[in-house]
């Protein structure tokens, strides 16, 4: 079996993301492990959005809502577990990551269903604006919620637990995030290769033709949007545990824009495009962030160059035209 160029590049990216923290751990440099973990989590969040944007053509500026919801689920459940105060209906908090992940995914699915059911009645710039409006509603609700920090955010005193491992060790937490990222990418690949994925892409290209063969574009897009929200919400829960802090900025429209930038940088619709974009973004932030506060200006120049001269993103530049199948 001969691997095509994009597959080889994908394998190299996955191997590099694993090799860097392993080397950093051997050299006693936990900071670089944290950077790699941040890349993995942002790549997972962008993979979720890539399902809606890359396959479905849905330019959502509301995915920060799901990212932030996942984060607040982690923070609120951990806070109640620490204090012992009950949640709604007498339910207790928890420090178990797997429970937090399930709650984050389910809540993101429900909110995604509600937002998608309304937003997908529109298209184009109207879809962009209504998803942005919903995300900002969630954002302003969070900053006006004093019991959970309001504008100041919510601290997670000790990182949540995962059975059998010490999540306080940077390398251990990275490996958890890395495995979840690979599972997320694998799910994206399965969806893209499935009949559902083909229908989602067809609805992006010509919804009238999709409707004429008996497939309802609205339902296909809504399903894709909800799955996309679930993946991004899971990433938000991991991000909160990485920083041990939940901030309303996770819900801001800037976060939605950042996820879109990651996808464009890496390659829209590409399997490992979000990972490539996240790695480039975090590396650029680290390299120039210490030199100037206006490092985003140079990122903007790179983004402009990608849009004008490398419309397939970094993977498109390196691997050529995308091959799905």
UniProtKB/TrEMBL annotation:
It is found in: Cell membrane. It is a multi-pass membrane protein. Keywords: Cell membrane, Membrane, Transmembrane, Transmembrane helix. CDD domains: TM_PBP1_LivM_like. InterPro entries: ABC_transp_permease, LivM-like. The chain crosses the membrane at residues 38-58, 65-83, 98-118, 125-143, 171-191, 222-240, 260-284, 296-319. PANTHER family: ABC TRANSPORTER ATP-BINDING PROTEIN, HIGH-AFFINITY BRANCHED-CHAIN AMINO ACID TRANSPORT SYSTEM PERMEASE. This is Branched-chain amino acid ABC transporter permease. It comes from Rhizobium puerariae.
């Amino acid at each position: 079996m001969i691997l095509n160029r994009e597959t080889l590049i994908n394998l190299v990216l996955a191997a590099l993301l694993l090799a860097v923290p392993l080397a950093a751990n051997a050299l006693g440099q936990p900071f670089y492990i944290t950077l790699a973990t941040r890349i993995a989590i942002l790549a997972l969040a962008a993979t979720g959005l890539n399902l809606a944007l890359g396959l479905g053509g849905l330019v959502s500026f509301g995915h920060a809502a799901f990212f932030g919801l996942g984060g607040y689920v982690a923070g609120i459940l951990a806070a109640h577990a620490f204090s012992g105060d009950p949640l709604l209906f007498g339910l207790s908090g928890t420090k178990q990551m797997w429970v937090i992940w399930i709650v984050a995914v389910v809540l993101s699915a429900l909110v995604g269903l509600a937002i998608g059911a309304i937003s997908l009645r529109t298209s184009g710039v109207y879809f962009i604006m209504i998803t942005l409006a919903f995300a900002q509603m969630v954002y302003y609700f969070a900053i006006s919620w004093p019991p959970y920090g309001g504008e100041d955010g919510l601290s997670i005193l000790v990182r949540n637990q995962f059975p059998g491992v010490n999540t306080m060790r940077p390398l251990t937490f990275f490996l958890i995030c890395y495995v979840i990222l690979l599972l997320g990418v694998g799910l994206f690949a399965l969806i893209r290769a499935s009949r559902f994925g083909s229908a989602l892409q067809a609805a992006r290209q010509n919804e009238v033709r999709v409707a004429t063969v008996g497939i309802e574009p609205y339902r296909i897009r809504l399903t894709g949007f909800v799955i996309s929200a679930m993946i991004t919400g899971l990433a938000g829960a991991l991000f909160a545990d990485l920083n041990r802090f939940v901030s309303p900025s996770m819900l801001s429209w800037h976060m939605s824009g950042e996820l879109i930038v990651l996808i464009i940088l890496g390659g829209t619709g590409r399997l490992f495009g979000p990972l490539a974009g996240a790695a480039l973004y975090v590396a650029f932030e680290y390299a120039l962030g210490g030199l100037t506060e206006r490092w985003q200006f140079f990122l903007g120049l790179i983004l402009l160059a990608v849009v004008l001269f490398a419309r397939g993103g970094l993977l498109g530049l390196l691997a050529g035209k995308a091959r799905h199948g």
